[in-house]
Design brief:
Blueprint: H1 3-19, H2 26-32, H3 40-56, H4 60-77, H5 80-96, H6 100-117, H7 120-136, H8 140-157, H9 160-176, H10 180-196, H11 201-217, H12 221-237, H13 241-258, H14 263-276, H15 280-296, H16 300-317, H17 323-336
Helix pairs in contact: 1-3, 2-3, 3-4, 4-5, 5-6, 5-7, 6-7, 6-17, 7-8, 7-9, 7-17, 8-9, 9-10, 9-11, 10-11, 11-12, 11-13, 12-13, 13-14, 13-15, 14-15, 15-16
């Protein structure tokens, strides 16, 4: 096998591992870019791997730059399927950085190509993207509906990997809707897939996290505490900032409910992680809990910074949806519901 073919095989493996939550460090990923033989497809693969490396660290802007470069390289190489997959990754990255309308633009472009390719797996991923936008709009029922459409497609396609990913999304929606039995059912099915045919350390940690969320909602504090501590440890081992921030925020809320003396300290640590990742919903939860913590101890002045931060975040989170984007959402809904492409 030639050096070029060996490198191509290495990139394919790294790309799969990166997508499954185990990307190389950014420095290692950047080094790959130096060895792509000036071939657009190999360059694109290396750029997408770099995007995953930055996304894993919640460095959204750097991830978006890498994903965009990868998408353009795939386009130059005439790789339509890979170009579409990278457009979807770009959309999710912008969603994570609180830019849902930009995400919609990329998913609209992706849907056009997916329909031309008659690729239902790509369409299922776009369903998941639309569901996340609805979460941002506060319509959790609509979000669940789109994730259930994606799950229906995943079952028909027989893709365990896609099915596992969608099951976690459905479980998350079910938690928000307080449908805990449904959430536990989805988590059990996803866990079984991870024990059999799917390997993804990020998802394994997420299952334990969502179990902790469910048990916290059901006021099973002791069980929730163990699960959220475990989820945080796994996310820390995976060096996954999103997972660490979510697990530690939920754990801090449990500690607060239990009246543990270290709740305030853990809340500050969770707030720091949420700020590092730019995850404003978690920042708001931490600040609300910190206000509760300080007021319960009659430390009114110490509560003021959290109160001011909460007000500031609420102001910056408000945005208006233009008529253009309302129409775009409607078109995505209509087109994505087409079962026969």
């Amino acid at each position: 096998m030639s050096a070029k073919l060996q490198f191509a095989a290495q990139l394919e493996i790294l790309a799969r591992e990166s997508y499954c939550g185990s990307p190389p460090a950014p420095a290692e990923a950047r080094q790959l870019l130096q060895n792509t033989f000036d071939e657009p497809r190999l360059m694109a693969l290396a750029q997408v791997i770099l995007g995953h490396s930055w996304q894993h660290l919640s460095e959204h802007l750097k991830a978006q730059q890498a994903f965009l470069a990868g998408m353009l390289s795939f386009k130059a190489a005439g790789c339509l399927k890979e170009q579409t997959e990278t457009l979807i990754l770009l959309g999710f990255s912008h969603l994570l950085s609180n830019e849902p309308l930009i995400a919609l633009d990329y998913w609209s472009d992706a849907l056009v190509i997916a329909r031309k390719l008659k690729n239902r797996k790509l369409c299922a991923r776009i369903y998941m993207g639309i569901s996340q936008v609805y979460i941002g709009f506060g319509d959790n029922q609509a979000a669940l509906g789109f994730n259930e459409l994606a799950l229906e497609l995943a079952r028909k396609l027989g893709s365990d990997h896609l099915k596992c990913e969608v099951l976690l999304n459905v479980a998350s929606d079910a938690c928000r809707l307080k449908r805990f039995s449904y959430a536990l059912q989805c988590l059990a099915e996803a866990e079984k897939l991870l024990q059999q045919s799917v390997v993804n350390p990020i998802w394994s940690a997420e299952i334990i996290y969502y179990l902790g969320v469910v048990h916290a909602e059901q006021k099973q504090w002791a069980q929730a505490k163990i699960e959220l501590e475990t989820a945080f440890t796994l996310s820390d081992q995976n060096d996954n900032l999103w997972g660490k921030a979510h697990a530690l925020t939920a754990l801090a809320e449990v500690l607060l409910a239990l009246g543990e003396n270290n709740a305030g300290t853990i809340l500050l640590q969770a707030l720091s992680l949420a700020e590092s990742g730019g995850i404003k919903p978690l920042q708001n939860r931490c600040n609300m809990a910190l206000i509760q913590w300080h007021l319960a101890r009659q430390n009114d002045e110490l509560a003021l910074p959290a109160f001011n931060a909460l007000i500031q975040n609420e102001d910056t989170e408000k945005f208006k949806i233009s008529a253009k984007h309302k129409q775009q959402i409607l078109q995505l809904e209509t087109q994505s519901r087409m079962r026969h492409l």
